[in-house]
Amino acid sequence: MAISTALWSFALVVGLLTLTPGLDTALILRTAGLGRRTRAWGVVLGIQTGTLIWGALTSLGVTALLTASHVAYEILRWAGVAYLLWMAVRMIRDTFRQERPTIDPAEARAGVDTLVGGWRQGTVTNLLNPKMGVFYVAILPQFIPAGAPHFSMGLLLTVVHIVLGLIWSGVLIASATALSAWLRKPGARKILDRVTGTVIGVFALRLGLSD
Fold first, then answer.
1. 3-state secondary structure of 10
2. Long-range pairs for 58-61 at CB < 8 Å and ≥24 separation?
3. Angle in degrees, 0-180, between the axes of helices 37-60 and 115-127, rounded to the nearest 10
């Protein structure tokens, strides 16, 4: 397999994966929909940081240990379940509290709309998903041509995944930002948080019940 063929083939596979709605999509849409554009890009960069780490570890052969060790996989899996459930419960719980009459734009400047906060959330969410590691172990080596440097080619394929993720995330953020004025209304925000919290909770349960 030529390098160019491998890149295009891998781009097709991860492109379809990127377009499939999931946990990352829910986090990005909710954050951008609440008018926190800076934090939304932080979430995106955090998710892609996690992707880069998974790709680098797979290229080094480290993530193969994750699939080989039942204990290591289970520890990471239940850590991910706990984190996602905590995020989902907190998100849904807050919708039942007495809400403010307005959403003050100064709230974002006070620390809610921060790049670092979003990056931290995106990175942790991605790294605590062991299925990302399993996906890379199963898929990445198949697209590394025989004779190609394993580590550098693995990183190049991972960069393709990251670029596609950034492009699609830009589309999601632009779409959610266009509706942010409506989504920041108390009633709409409550619905958004409950839907997003439910989606995250479902992903947590699926991760916990998966074999």
1. helix
2. 58/133, 58/136, 58/137, 58/140, 58/141, 58/154, 59/140, 59/150, 59/151, 59/152, 59/153, 59/154, 59/155, 59/158, 60/151
3. 40
What whole-number percentage of the chain has pLDDT above 90?
35
Contacts of 41 (CB under 8 A, 6+ apart): 115, 118, 169, 173
Q: What is the pLDDT of residue 122?
A: 94
Contact (Cβ atoms closer than 8 angstroms) between residue 136 and residue 54: yes
| Token duo for residue 145 | 């041509």
Q: Is the pLDDT of residue 104 over 90?
A: no
The answer to whether 135 and 66 are in contact (CB under 8 A) is no
Nearest to 204 by CA among 111, 115, 92, 44: 92
The residue count for the chain: 211
Q: What is the pTM of this model?
A: 0.81
How big is the chain by its Cα radius of gyration, in Å?
A: 18
- Nearest Cα to 108, choosing from 4, 22, 34, 208? 34
Q: What tokens were used for 174?
A: 């632009």
